[in-house]
Amino acid sequence: MDTADKEVTAEVLHKKGLIHEVDRPVKILGNGELTKAITIKVNAFSKTAREKIEKAKGKAEVIGRA
């Protein structure tokens, strides 16, 4: 992600080529490290992903249902 991306949605992930379809549920997994505070708005998060996002002072927001 670019450091300019303060809010990540399915649309942003699609534009970056990280997901194929915007209209399908998206679940964020806890692989890797997060060093910037960002807000991520998707359908679901793994427990580890939520912990890493919040540890970096970001927000994990669930939209709709996965």
Give the structural class. Answer: alpha/beta
What's the arrangement of strands in the largest beta sheet?
1-3-5
Question: What is the string of SSEs from the N terminus onward?
Answer: EHEEEHE
Query: Per CATH, which architecture?
Result: Ribosomal Protein L15, Chain: K, domain 2
Number of DSSP strand runs: 5
- Biggest beta sheet attributes: 3 strands, parallel
Number of domains: 1
Q: For this entry, what is the oligomeric state of its chains?
A: single chain
CATH topology (fold) name: Ribosomal Protein L15, Chain: K, domain 2
Distance between the termini: 23 Å
Q: Beta-strand percentage?
A: 15-25%
State the shape.
globular
Mean pLDDT: 91
The helix tally amounts to 2
What's the Cα radius of gyration? 11 Å
Q: Give the fraction of residues assigned to helices.
A: 10-25%
CATH C-level label: Alpha Beta
Poorly predicted runs are none
Summarize the structure.
This protein has helices spanning 10-15, 47-55; strands at 7-9, 27-28, 39-42, 44-45, 59-62. It has 66 residues and is of the alpha/beta class. It is globular, with a radius of gyration of 11 Å.
